[in-house]
Amino acid sequence: MIYTLLVFTSIKKQHAQNVHNDKFLNDNNLALLVKDSLEKEGWIYQKDFPFFFKKTKTGKAPKSCSFSPNDSTIAVTLLSDSAVAVELFKTNNLEKFKTIITKHENAEKNKGYAEGTWKNNNEFWFTRMTTGDYFIWDKEKDKLSKFDSKGIWTKIIEFSPNKNVVAMSHWISNSVTIFDVNNKQLIKKIKTGKTPRGICWLNDSTFAVALFNKGDIEVFNSQSGEKIFNIKGYGGAARDVQYDSTNKLLYYSNMSLSKVFKYDWEQKKYIGSVRVDLKPNSIRLSDDYSYLFVSCRGPNNKEGYTKRSPRNGDIYILDTNKWEAIENWRAGNQPTGLDISSDKKYLVQSNFQDNNIILWLISL
User: Fold this and answer.
1) Which fold has domain 46-361?
2) Quick one: pLDDT band at residue 288, thresholds 50, 70, 90?
3) What Rg do the C-alpha atoms of the chain give, in angstroms?
4) Which CA distances in Å does 19 have to 136, 160, 326, 327?
5) C-alpha–C-alpha distance, residues 38 and 44, integer Å
């Protein structure tokens, strides 16, 4: 678990042996004590939290970024880099060690790699919006396989908790498709409201999907395809959704309202919302559900979001128990993708207009 760092004792030279890695590095005095050793490892120091970061360039329009389960690798999907689908980086030094290339006879369709997720340390699954395909990269065999997602303009891809099935949302066909993970066969095509986006599983047979156009959250049984509940939102545009399975709490971001909402699934009622920076995009819960991390794109360019924003966007950390923002800082131009390492030490985020990712050291 991650706890706010209140006190610290003596710290030896190798910056971590007396400090557990379950504490935020939010004390500048502590940061200065470990500064020299971290800089030797390539970390860049700044005066405000988070004190240490690394960054590296990516291809054009990095969208999602995600740690492998063992935290050794960061996979980045590219939305606008023709033919280049995914870039893979070593977490320890951000060295790019693999570029996944795809092929399509139409160059305009050979891009649009929206989202990706790891099934395990060996398999990375990702989607291509322009063709409605999804891909599986086998790291051990260095093999790429392509499958039809049975939807139009495919967005999010998300495994059930037991990883027996996978769900994909489709922006234009207004649907979610469910596939058997082992044989890649379609199990169910489910009609949703307009422009489904983020997906989270409440259990192995129930999932929630955010409707960007309306701002609602729809909940379905994946086996029957039945819609079992509708969480009425406050208008478009609901974007990403996460679920705390221990406390039965659902969280979702709304880009137009600049808010993150907290909803009690058992009581079927809202607990409240927290205002963040403009255009909140991806949200991620810590494994213990104590913290919610939010990437915010910031204000749109007057000519549209595909152009650089007039200022950089913020990253937020929300305390889910107190239900308030406890940290926020300015990141890059249009922070979009976001992930937390399983060891709680790192936060990685993509900057859509800077064509880079930043790795932040948030705990020791």
Assistant:
1) Methylamine Dehydrogenase; Chain H (2.130.10)
2) very high
3) 20
4) 39, 35, 21, 21
5) 8
> Are 208 and 239 contacting, i.e. CB atoms less than 8 angstroms apart?
no
Strands laid side by side in the 217-221 sheet: 196-203, 206-211, 217-221, 227-231
User: pLDDT by residue (tens digit) across 81-138?
Assistant: 988 999 999 999 999 999 999 988 888 899 999 999 999 999 999 999 999 999 999 9
Sheet of strand 62-67, all strands in order from the earlier edge strand to the far edge: 62-67, 73-78, 84-90, 96-101
Domain regions of the chain by residue span: 46-361
- Beta-strand pair 44-45/52-57: antiparallel
Dump pLDDT digits (tens) for 227-269. 999 999 999 899 999 999 999 999 999 999 999 999 999 999 9
Amino acid 197: pLDDT: 98
- What's the pLDDT tens digit per position in 326-357? 999 999 999 999 999 998 899 999 999 999 99
C-beta separation of 177 from 169 below 8 A = no
What gap in Å lies between CA 346 and CA 352, rounded to an integer?
19
Give the largest CA-CA distance in the chain: 61
Placement of tokens 């699934």 in the chain: 265
Residue 272 exposed, middle or buried by CB count within 10 Å (0-12, 13-18, 19+): exposed
57/46 Cα distance (integer angstroms):
20
Report the alpha-carbon distance of residue 10 to residue 30 in Å, rounded.
10
Pairing assessment for the beta strands 186-191 and 196-203 based on DSSP bridges: unpaired
